[in-house]
Every structure is written in structure tokens, then in C-alpha cells.
Amino acid sequence: MENISDKSTRQFPCGSCGAAAVFDPESQALKCSYCGSVTQIEEMEEEVLEHDFEASLNHEPKEKWQGETKVMQCENCGGKTVLEDSATADKCNFCGSPHVVSLSEFSGIKPESLIPFRISRKQVKTLFKKWISRKPFAPRSLKKEYRGDKINGIYIPYWTYDSDSYTAYTAEAGTYYYVTQSYTVMVNGRPQRRTRQVRKIRWRRVSGTYGRFFNDLLVNASNSNNRKMVEGVEPYRIEGIVPYKPDYLSGFAAERYAVPLKEGWGIARDKAVQILRREITRKINADEVRNLRLRTSYSDIKYRHTLFPLWISSYRYRNKAFNYMVNGQTGRFSGKAPVSILKVIATIIFVIAVVLLVVYLLGEFGLLEEISTFTY
């Protein structure tokens, strides 16, 4: 693996004052953090390429990210974060742990495309306020005092896979039919004959073939802990993808992929099988389908390593860490809020008081005895 710790640092100085410029989601440009000047990012004309899967398995590329990055690993959750060589990290972007160490080496398949941040940090704060306001048991202090100053933007690694597929299938197709059944009921002590329609299923064996092209099957390549967390803000859309440029990462971090290319295809293939099962079931066009068996072959498999935007905030309440995440492309929100024990106790006491008041009022007006008499 190639050592990247001694590489030169890529800077994005402001054209007006020379201060550091970072990517701004609202303007989709580099914005000076000091004077506010905006510098447009030069659009790249080259196409976002897809690579041959089989060829890369035999000769997996070992490439650096522009030679201007370093990798930080969290000893708590295992996440690896790619930062600009000049940036520092004292806490993990995902779990907030301070146990972050620098790795001296990093290589692998570099990203060649990404979806830039569309949601700004300001919008994230607004989304949090709306979300926490709908949590009745969240601590009042959190609702009032949280300022959102620890919101981190990070790019999450994904594999995208394209593939042709050919499936031979067998199944049992069921068609509903109805038969008339007679039965006896007792009416005023006398038996009466009645009829009813009973649904049954007539099964037949079916078989056939199904061709399907899969385009951009998305696979989250984060480590296992982060992958589960990110599911809450999915799905991402592939629309708006651009060629990778370090300009888009200015002011942000990027997670190094933890799911290898081959393992990622296994996950994508499982997704493809679920899609095939649904579509072939519809194709059979029966009332019910059972024992569906597929034999699928895949060909001309292509892949891309793409980065998707994610906002993360880690905060502590009563010595316990809580996270929330916001999809940096769509604004989809996911999180778990702390619960105020005092609010829970107060609610329970209020409910008990209301029940006791209702019972008291019913007794005062004599309604309780009437209800008891009616019940018996």
C-alpha cells in the first residue's frame, strides 16, 4: 500500500482574501469562510465511467486519492475517515468517540464520482428543530439549548453495479375458484339449512425465462455499524452525479469503503434476486404463486465507486451519546432522541389523575351504578 502521509496538501484559497474556501451546498460553489466570496467550481466534461467488474477482481486498482488525503480510524466503531492532509480530527464523525488514530497508509479503488451536498448546515438545524419538537418526551433543555454546532458533513462510500441477467424459473401458480357449501344453523331452536361460497385454489406448474438489465444497484460500503445507521436516511438517488473533484470535499470528510468490491457485488446480487422474485411473480399473473425457484446468470457486470453526502450530529445527554443523521441530498431525517424521565412520570401521573377524576364524577352522578347494572 502507498504511504500518503508525506504528500503535499491541496489548498482552496479565496481569490479575494486568501482565506480557506469550503464547498457551499446552497451555491454549489466554493465559499470563503472569512469574507464570503464565492468561486465557481469548474465543470468537468469527462463522463463518469463504469468499470469492468471481472477485470478489477483480477487486478484490483491500488490508487491514492489525489495524494492529498490521510485516513483516521475510530478505535470505538472501526470507521475509517478520509480527510484532507491539512485537516485534523479529534472525534469520530459517526459515534463521537475521542479515540481516533491516524493511519499512515491508504490505498484502494478511489472514487471517480460523487453526489454533492444539496442540504446546507442551516437547513439541517431547521430539520432538527422540527424533528425534536415532535418528540413529546424529549428533554426541554435539549429543545431549547441545542445549537447544532457539532454537525459534521461526511461523504459515504457506495458501490453502484450494472448487470445483464437471464433467469430460468419454475413455480406453482394458483387460480381461485369457488364452491357452494351447505351448513346448518339453529334459529329459534329449529335447524335451518343455508349455503355459502368457499374459496379454493387450483394449482398448476409453470416455467419460463426472464431477461432483465439492472442499472445502478446501490450498495452502502460503510463499515457494519455505520451501514445500519445510514439505512434510516436512505434511499439516495443517482441523479446529479458528477465526476470526483477534491473541491467538493473541501470542508468535509469522506469515509473509506469497508465493503470490498467482490463482497459488494454479493449484496447487490441479493437485491437483484428480490427484484426478480417480485417481477417474475407479477409476470406469472396468478392469484397466488408458491415454490418459485430461480436460476439466474449475470453478465457484463460494471461498477462505480461513488460518494454520497450525509450530515451527522453526535451529542451527549446524561453521559449517553445520541446521533441523528440527515441525507445531504434529499433532507431525509433519522435519529433517536433521549427521553426525559420526569416527563414520562408526569404523563403517567396525569393519566392516572384523569382516570380517577372520571371515576369520581361517574360516582357523583350515579352513573357508575347504572353502568354496573347494565353490564350484568
Brief sketch in words of this structure:
By secondary structure, this protein is of the alpha+beta class. It has helices at residues 53-58, 121-133, 140-145, 224-230, 261-284, 341-364, 367-375, and strands at residues 21-24, 29-32, 38-39, 51-52, 69-74, 80-84, 100-103, 113-114, 151-187, 190-220, 242-243, 253-255, 288-317, 320-327, 333-335.
Number of helices: 7
| Global morphology | flat
Strand content: 35-45%
Please identify the oligomeric state: single chain
Tell me the span between the first and last alpha carbons: 83 Å
Helix content: 10-25%
Query: What structural class should be given to the helix and strand makeup?
Result: alpha+beta
Give the ordered list of helices and strands: EEEEHEEEEHHEEHEEHEEEHH
Provide an overview of this structure.
The structure is a single chain. The chain is an alpha+beta fold and about 375 residues long. Among the domains are: about 20-155 and about 210-260 and about 305-335, no CATH class; about 345-375, no CATH class. It has seven helices and 15 strands. The chain has helices spanning about 55-60, 120-135, 140-145, 225-230, 260-285, 340-365, 365-375, and strands at about 20-25, 30, 40, 50, 70-75, 80-85, 100-105, 115, 150-185, 190-220, 240-245, 255, 290-315, 320-325, 335. The strands form two sheets. Strands 4, 5, 6, 7, 8, 9, 10, 11, 12, 13, 14 and 15 form a twelve-stranded mixed sheet that branches. Strands 1-2-3 form a three-stranded antiparallel sheet, with no helix packed on it. β5 and β6 (about 80-85) form a beta hairpin. The longest helix has 24 residues, at about 260-285. Mean pLDDT is about 80; it is low at about 1-10 and about 100.
